């Protein structure tokens, strides 16, 4: 993906040069043709920007489009940061990542929780739950949260229930992501409305 972006960036100056050259030639050839071509170019640019904005803000965009399974471990952990922040937690990421260590530390109103984010191909078993619970005293945490892109086995669920551990499986994760995305879109819309109102008030005052 990064190589594709670099390739696009490499051809951008060439494309801009060709567009500028064509516009200059059209301007010298016929001003009317130049004006029509420029209007079409601006219209196409506007349509592209609107389409790009639609992809980011459309209500049809859900967590399924994020391809959680394809994310590297660090990006999977980073994905959880704004979700917990939206719930009022302050979030600290661990600098070093070990399979038996917590990935995130959450704090809210004196409550400290540790988060284990595991992106894997198999369902999470009871052993992984026990390893996470063993770190509770190490971090002096009152809560343990385990997040995965898969499901939990029945043995894992029983172990978690017995120790009051919070489990977030794939379905719950997608629900949290969808809720966060909807909230983000709503907040963005409200900010735009406020900006429009302020701009109108400034125009009236002037």
From TrEMBL:
<dbReference type="GO" id="GO:0015666">
    <property type="term" value="F:restriction endodeoxyribonuclease activity"/>
</dbReference>
<keyword id="KW-0812">Transmembrane</keyword>
<dbReference type="GO" id="GO:0009307">
    <property type="term" value="P:DNA restriction-modification system"/>
</dbReference>
<dbReference type="InterPro" id="IPR007560">
    <property type="entry name" value="Restrct_endonuc_IV_Mrr"/>
</dbReference>
<dbReference type="Pfam" id="PF04471">
    <property type="entry name" value="Mrr_cat"/>
</dbReference>
<feature type="transmembrane region" description="Helical">
    <location>
        <begin position="33"/>
        <end position="51"/>
    </location>
</feature>
<feature type="domain" description="Restriction endonuclease type IV Mrr">
    <location>
        <begin position="70"/>
        <end position="177"/>
    </location>
</feature>
<protein>
    <recommendedName>
        <fullName>Restriction endonuclease type IV Mrr domain-containing protein</fullName>
    </recommendedName>
</protein>
<keyword id="KW-1133">Transmembrane helix</keyword>
<dbReference type="InterPro" id="IPR052906">
    <property type="entry name" value="Type_IV_Methyl-Rstrct_Enzyme"/>
</dbReference>
<dbReference type="InterPro" id="IPR011856">
    <property type="entry name" value="tRNA_endonuc-like_dom_sf"/>
</dbReference>
<dbReference type="GO" id="GO:0003677">
    <property type="term" value="F:DNA binding"/>
</dbReference>
<dbReference type="InterPro" id="IPR011335">
    <property type="entry name" value="Restrct_endonuc-II-like"/>
</dbReference>
<feature type="transmembrane region" description="Helical">
    <location>
        <begin position="9"/>
        <end position="27"/>
    </location>
</feature>
<keyword id="KW-0472">Membrane</keyword>
